[in-house]
Design goal:
Rossmann fold; 19 helices; 15 strands
């Protein structure tokens, strides 16, 4: 079972889910981005920039204009003719400057100009090697050439810009017998380096670090194919019956004592189980399931714990309940309530002379709750659970109890749970939230293909509401914000009659 990309919505709620679930990762990536930016700023050599502009215009244009004017006075040209001649000289000069400006760039990049510039800088007191670079840029249809000199030495950048223009003019005059370019201003002197831009780099480090963290969080969340919330169950057409929070002291609630110490978290867990019991009873109001099998896709999902807690809740409602440990490979229930492993289910199935299963049942382990332990470990558990004697036993016990809860072994790699499902009225999949993979649940549901109508839903167990994202926001706020006081540790929870105090 794979979740399609259409199932993931890039909305604000999903971003909040990623922030809430992977905030440590995002914070780490942001700090890493700042650290990388800081190291880059410290390891990068500061660079200074000096700027100077040249106007590629004929320096002898004024003389040419005077000669034209003088000839015009001698020939007594009209004013219109003088303007036309004046404009013609200017336009030709501009056109010539635009045509030659790219050649001027090549002249400035001439090694001869570079050698002459270096010699002049050394004469000015700068020590070789002279570390500077320059670039020339020209705007479209313009006679202005911008020269930018970059150097780790601010003084060298300024001096190199001025000297470079002087040597360019000398080279131009040598080649063309005319100076056709003039500096528009002195080279700028930069007091602070333009590179690296420390504040910008730090900002970009935070931004890119956070974005990378979000990308990693999205990939982790996208590749995490475990069941995390009830919506994941709905996607595989499994009805969510409820969500049980993780609680470290759950074993105490499953204890044999009628009253156990509890706090707000324990009460929340009991309330969640009570809601599940109510939900199950509402599924089929006219004919509620009497024999319910609890199975899971993997071991350690908490089936035995949930069966015991649900039995206590139902017993508190004055219902007569039987808990049957049908996990004949790795039984757990007798350990959870600290009972000795007396004769139980397997012993009855092996005892062909006894037709009364009540002799192998522990009465009133909780108020109104009886328990049939597994008994001895058999070599053939699947055959025993699928035997006619087992089916006949279930028919007898059906009339004795209001509800029978079967603790089944996991589905993975074993047929026990499928065989046991034939005797059950309903099957519930118990899912360890955040650990059970979706495709495992789907595969197990496919194993129950012939019994598909008996699967009434799934229960999410050990849900961490603190990491559940926006789905469990309100519940998690209530659940996590509570800090138990000393007086709360003295409170007790009466799980046998469904009342808390």
């Amino acid at each position: 079972m794979r979740i399609s990309r259409e199932d993931i919505h890039f909305d604000f709620a999903y971003v909040l889910h990623l922030l809430n679930r992977y905030w440590i990762l995002l914070l780490s990536m942001s700090v890493l981005g700042i650290a990388v930016s800081f190291c880059f700023n410290e390891c990068t050599t500061p660079l200074y920039k000096s700027h100077i502009s040249l106007f590629t215009w004929n320096s002898s244009i004024s003389k040419a204009m005077k000669k034209v004017k003088k000839k015009g006075e001698e020939k007594k040209n009209s004013e219109v003719e003088e303007v036309m001649m004046h404009n013609s000289i200017i336009s030709q000069s501009i056109y010539l400057g635009q045509r030659l400006i790219f050649d001027y760039i090549n002249i400035m990049k001439n090694p001869q100009v570079r050698r002459a510039t270096n010699k002049s800088l050394i004469d000015q007191g700068f020590k070789p090697p002279l570390k500077y670079t320059f670039e020339c840029t020209v705007k479209h249809k313009s006679c202005i050439m911008d020269v930018i000199v970059i150097s780790p030495d601010s003084k060298l950048a300024t001096a190199a810009a001025n000297t470079l223009v002087e040597e360019f003019q000398n080279e131009q005059e040598r080649l063309m017998d005319i100076k056709y370019a003039k500096a528009m201003h002195f080279a700028s002197n930069s007091a602070s380096p333009f590179s690296p831009r420390k504040k910008l780099n730090l900002f970009l480090g935070v931004v890119f670090g956070t974005l990378v963290g979000l990308a990693i969080a999205f990939l982790l969340d996208y590749q995490d194919m475990t069941v995390k919330n009830p919506d994941d169950l709905k996607k595989i057409n499994l009805l969510p019956l409820g969500s049980v929070p993780y609680y470290a002291g759950v074993d105490e609630l499953c204890g044999h004592n009628e009253q156990v110490k509890s706090n707000r978290q324990g009460n929340s867990l009991i309330d969640a189980v009570r809601i599940i019991g109510t939900t199950i009873s509402f599924l089929k109001v006219d004919n509620p399931p009497k024999i319910i099998e609890f199975t899971s896709a993997m071991s350690g999902a908490g089936k035995s714990t949930q069966v015991l807690l649900l039995s206590k809740i139902l017993g508190g409602e004055r219902k007569r309940v039987l808990v049957m440990d049908c996990d004949l490979r790795r039984p757990r229930i007798y350990k959870n309530i600290n009972l000795p492993n007396k004769d139980g289910l397997v012993n009855y199935l092996k005892d062909s002379h006894c037709n009364d299963p009540m002799k192998y049942i522990n009465s009133n382990v909780f108020p109104n709750v009886d328990l049939m332990t597994h008994g001895i470990i058999p070599p053939n558990p699947t055959e025993l659970l699928g035997s006619k004697r087992f089916a006949d036993m279930m028919d007898k016990l059906r009339d004795e109890y209001d509800c029978i809860l079967l603790d089944s072994p996991p589905c993975a790699g074993m047929a026990d749970s499928m065989v046991l499902g034939k005797s059950a009225d309903a099957i519930i999949m118990l899912i360890d939230a955040g650990k059970t993979r979706i495709h495992d649940v789907v595969r197990n549901m496919e194993q129950f293909d012939t019994l598909r109508d008996k699967i009434i839903g799934g229960i999410l167990n050990k849900v961490n509401f603190k990491k559940g994202g926006e789905y469990y926001y309100n519940y998690g706020y209530y659940y996590e914000s509570y800090e138990p006081y000393e007086s709360d540790s003295k409170k007790t929870i009466q799980v046998s009659d469904g009342q808390t105090s």
